[in-house]
Amino acid sequence: MKTNFHTHIYRCGHASGDVEDYVLEGIRKGYSSLGISDHGPLPDYLFDRMPMTDLEAYIESINSAKKKYSNKINIFSALELEYFEEFEAYYIDLKEKLDYLVLAIHYFTRNEKLHSSWGVSSKEDLKAFVDLTIKAIKSKHFDFLAHPDLFSVSYTDWDEHAIEASYKICKTAKEFNLPIELNANGVRKGLRKTERGLRYPYPNEDFWKIAKEVGVKVLINSDCHMVEELDDEYMNHANKLAKKWGLNIIKKLK
After folding, report:
1. Are 137 and 103 in contact (CB under 8 A)?
2. Would the pTM count as exceeding 0.90?
């Protein structure tokens, strides 16, 4: 059974293709379920994301595709969102309009400044990233955690801080029955040299060894930003890695 719950369209500003383009590709490639989950707008903060003025049209385009293709594929409406405590009411409102919400910590606050998770480079950064991830999981607004090992893009040492961070994320996700995502987009970025040899920026094999030990549920998603990435060689390789690492793979969201 082929599924993908992490799909981007042109509205976020750094992807291409519209809802129907991905749906038709999903049908052609034999997918049973496809979740459209573009980067959602926020009431504040200026990121590379969908404009708030596009939100209603975005939801309507997914609902229209559901009606048109319901006999061929299961289509779900979603958004990938950052977590900020001040937007609690906004998340609750979105849950009423959409099938699910994806948690993604691309940004975190430390010393009252906003930092990118792509640039986690110190134990203080790592702690702030993990603390926000755990707080977001505990909010219960979200249905899975995207690329939980994003911190390893820049934090390449597998030291006691990285190990502790990984256990905290995995154990909290397990406690709150929140699946975590093995993300194929990190595989697309290719192998790179690190202190521990050739590694993907993510998925980080050492992180996923801990995920296996903890027994947390795992979704394999494409995180596609172009139609041709929905079912490409990198998505296939991500599936092979998950099986090789013995992960607790699921194919459905509750």
Report:
1. yes
2. yes
* Residue 32 in tokens: 């049973």
Beta strands in 18-73, from DSSP E residues, in sequence order: 31-39
Cβ pair 254, 208 in contact under 8 A:
no
- Gap between the Cα atoms of 111 and 215, Å rounded: 34
The string of pLDDT tens digits covering residues 73-126 is: 999 999 999 999 999 999 999 999 999 999 999 999 998 888 999 999 999 999
Whether residue 106 contacts residue 117, with contact meaning beta carbons closer than 8 Å, is answered with: yes
Domain assignment present for 112: yes
- Residue 27's domain comprises 2-249
Place of tokens 């291409």: 16
User: To which H or E segment does residue 244 belong?
Assistant: helix 233-244
Instruction: Name the one residue in this structure whose structure tokens are 């405590």.
Output: 85
Positive or negative, the CA dihedral 129, 133, 135, 139 is: positive
Residue 38: give its domain's CATH number.
3.20.20.140
Closest of 223, 145, 212 to residue 187, by C-alpha: 223
One-letter amino acid for residue 161 of the chain: H
In a domain, 254, yes or no: no
Nearest to 7, CA basis, from 226, 249, 155: 226
As a whole number of angstroms, the longest Cα–Cα distance in the chain is 51
Structure token digits, residue 252 = 């459905």
The total of other beta-carbon atoms located within 10 Å of residue 163's CB is: 13
Query: What whole-number distance in Å separates Cα of residue 179 and Cα of residue 217?
Result: 5
Q: What is the DSSP letter of 224?
A: B
Q: Which structure tokens are listed for 167?
A: 């256990």
